[in-house]
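Here is one chain, start to finish.
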Amino acid sequence: MEVDNQIVGKTESFLFLAGDEGLSVRQLMALTEQSEEQMLAIIGQLKNSYEQRQDSGLTLKLFGGSYRLVTKAEYADDIKKLLENSSPKSITQASLEVLAIIAYQQPVTRVEIDDLRGVKSEGPIHTLISNGLIMEKGRLEGSGRAILYGTTDLFLDRFGLASLSDLPPLMHNDEEDVGDTDLFMTQFQEAFEVDNNGGGNHS
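Its structure:
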């Protein structure tokens, strides 16, 4: 089946913007106004193009019913080396809030993080993933199969922890809710002396 290259490019841009959430065939059909047959042909062309190109480090994979743009497996060691050896990047207050919530509540979904913060968390989540501090830890069962996030070994290293059991306990009384972002932030920052330069006590 002949496909419209402009629609292929549009599909690629939607997949890029969706990030690690990915998009299902039906979502892509709605966004591009294509039939299922046309959409599958477009996805197939994109996937083949990525796999055949030696000058691209990306490919298209299906995870739990959603298509995602991911890095090719042959570059895994190089990417790991970059994440481990790169200097710490600036961590904004928003990213720090999300990191604190994930550290104590993991595995946790983006929706749960959003509920705790009261605002959307896509940006901070992408920042933390790019810094190698959090990663996908699986998916919820049932419809939607939301991504579960957790911290990485690099997170432990950055904050001088041997394991997650070394996280300081969150103390709260009858007037404080463990789900309160201010409580997370205050104790998380005090425990690790984190500042907005991105360093913990181990940087």
